Amino acid sequence: MTAISHSSGDLIADRRADYARMLDEAGDHAAAAEVMEQAMALVPDWPAGLALLATYRENAGDVAAAIATLKKLDGEDAEDVFAASLKLAVLGAAEPPAHPPGRYVEALFDSYADHFDQALTERLEYNAPERLAALLAGSEGETRRFRLCADLGCGTGLSGAAFCKRVARLEGFDLSANMLAKAEEKVVYHHLAQADLLLAPEESGLFAPGLERRRADLVVAADVLMYLGALDSLMDNVASLIAPGGIFLFSVEDGGDAETFTLLPSLRYAHAFAYVEGMLSRAGFDLKSHERAALRKDAGEPVPGILFLAVRRLA
Ligand SMILES: C[S@@+](CC[C@H](N)C(=O)[O-])C[C@H]1O[C@@H](n2cnc3c(N)ncnc32)[C@H](O)[C@@H]1O
Fold first, then answer.
1. Ligand 1 center to 75 CA (angstroms)
2. CATH number at residue 65
């Protein structure tokens, strides 16, 4: 993912920060940290600068200094846009939060929207939507059509595009306005709206006036749960959205033998199979099929995932 960047408001500090970035990219992490310290001397409370300084210090192997910088960032960044809480947890200096900060995820995808499709499909070999579509075809056949599909965390619409041929109405929901704007350009959705899957159903945006409960016979969430952490609110939302007998199709990063879910160095979450199965069952779903598969690449390595197809119980 690309970094979120903001100007410091000080031209010289920005120039030093640019130079520090070049040094870091060239592999001279200690020099990058030193130049970034000089930038921060001019704008000591600049949140984006603190986030960069922490990264360069960590890259240079000075974890204690990185933690100190992240603690200062934590105090300066009230909305946690730069995810100090997650980074401190990854470095072992704080407990992992149950959910990522919403403003961090929103800003991350807002900044990523213009490059998302090309990066994901060309460089990262992203194929979760196609694999989920294949899992659906394997379970329900190629010809079954759906009345209403809700694509949760629809992003730029790669997932909607994989399902639109077999649904009469396609609705897309996402936290990021810029991702939604890109989805609109694909002209496959009948309804697109901002929503937060971590909020309770009545506040999430999935049930705005005119949008009934239990209206969907297919709900898809491709490559989204790794940005949610604990799955309670997601399951409440999907259970409210889906009609009895409806299908919930989604992917997770494979959390292996963990009891529940794990925060990864990538700042995404991985979910254990047993945790997901238990959450589905509690929310009124029967797991019908699942498949282990690489979802995409990260730093050149395949990301192990699990694809799930669950059916909402009739009663
Ligand atoms: C990796 S993208 C996947 C997009 C799309 N499903 C696809 O397959 O291309 C993850 C998407 O989940 C969205 N997302 C993350 N957390 C969310 C939340 N709490 N509520 C709604 N959308 C969220 C992000 O904004 C992003 O667009």
1. 27
2. 1.25.40.10
Pair 275, 306: CB distance under 8 Å: no
Q: What is the CA radius of gyration of the chain?
A: 21
Q: For residue 226, report the distance from its CA to the centre of ligand 1, in Å.
A: 9
Residues 80 and 125 in one domain: no
Distances (CA, A) of 78 to 81, 85, 223: 8, 11, 27
Domain containing 38: what range? Answer: 11-95
Read off the pLDDT of residues 2-40 as tens digits, 9 standing for 90 and up.
345 578 999 999 999 999 999 999 999 999 999 999 999
Distance CA 99, CA 230 (A): 6
**C-alpha 35 – ligand 1 centre gap (Å):** 35
Q: Are residues 35 and 134 in the same domain?
A: no
Instruction: Verify that 305 and 204 share a domain, yes or no.
Output: yes
Tens digit of each residue's pLDDT (9 = 90 or more) over 146-178: 999 999 999 999 999 999 999 999 999 999 999
Q: Which of 312, 252, 310, 314 is nearest to 135 (CA)?
A: 310
Within this chain, do residues 212 and 122 fall inside the same structural domain, yes or no? yes
Parallel, antiparallel, or unpaired for β 167-174 and 191-194? parallel
Do 260 and 168 lie in one domain? The reply is yes
Q: Strand, helix or coil at 16? A: helix
